[in-house]
Amino acid sequence: MPHIDPEELSLLALYGAWLDEEGQRHLNSCDACSAEYAALRRAVDAMKTTPDSTSFEVPGPNVWSGIHRELGLSDATRADPLGPATGSATGSAAGSATGTETSKAGHTDPPEPGHPPAPPTDIRSVKKRPLGWQRRGTWLAVAAAGALVIAGGTLWNLNQAATPLARAELSPLAQHTATGSATVLESADGSRNLEVKLSKDEAQGYQEVWLIGTDLKRLISLGIMSSDSGTFPLPSDLNLDDFPIVDVSDEPLDGNPGHSSVSIVRGSLSS
């Protein structure tokens, strides 16, 4: 199957829920998707840190500027959330001026008629929370969201860039009924992968994926397939014209790295 949609990976990282069994199998066998998922999980786990367990260093304004630019946020959020708070100096000055006028007069003015004074508040009932952590939490939330967007965008580009080069229909061999397909995909960076999908796993031992030469003597092992699908990187200097046959074998646990001579499915690649 193609790589998992970035939105599905983000939801899986956030909520841990998975509804697609085929997607779960792909995640277990695909190095690219599992790496992206691990990065998203790290971003989510960072947001679960409590203020009592970790101390943070305040990042410089250039960090927020980069996040603001990457996410394309509006001018209303251009100011660094961890920068100097506006209005605090004004409030302090106003409070000082009021306090001066009160001390000069020696008393406070009585409330105007028709406006009873507000009831007193027990200061002990007010739970204080440091403003710095509130602002830091806001900054971290936006930073984590940015990480999810950027990581998801990277995987989206990976999906879009993969180009199919060749495909093989895999047919069952003696005493087997499984069928499947093998597709060679080329990424934007020129790397190639072989994606193998079978209708079921019929191995008595374990499945191993091979490329076989046209002479039916030369073999290249691509790796073990632990489920009914898998993705395997191809050597950069491999000429598929010399090794066009895709073979999935049933290998016993005997310690012999060679082919068991028991093939489950086989097919030839064609572009």
Q: How would you explain this protein's 3D organization?
A:
With 271 residues, this protein is an alpha+beta fold. It has 2 domains: 1-105 and 130-161, no CATH class; 163-268, no CATH class. The chain contains 6 helices and 8 strands. The chain is elongated.
Layout of helices and strands:
Elements: H1 6-15, H2 21-29, H3 31-47, H4 61-71, H5 88-105, H6 131-161, E1 163-172, E2 180-186, E3 192-198, E4 206-212, E5 219-225, E6 229-233, E7 245-251, E8 263-268
Helix pairs in contact: 1-3, 1-6, 3-6, 4-6
Number of helices in the DSSP assignment: 6
Oligomeric status: single chain
Q: Round the mean pLDDT to the nearest integer and report it.
A: 76
The proportion of residues in beta strands is 15-25%
Residue stretches low in confidence (pLDDT < 50, at least 5 long) are 87-107, 123-131
Rg from alpha-carbon coordinates: 31 Å
Shape: elongated
In total, how many beta strands? Answer: 8
Order of secondary-structure elements: HHHHHHEEEEEEEE
Main pleated sheet: 8 strands, antiparallel
The termini sit apart by: 18 Å
Question: Could you give a quick summary of the protein structure above?
Answer:
The chain has six helices and eight strands; from the N terminus they run H-H-H-H-H-H-E-E-E-E-E-E-E-E.
Which short descriptors sum up this protein?
271 residues, alpha+beta, eight-stranded antiparallel β-sheet, 6 helices, 8 strands, elongated
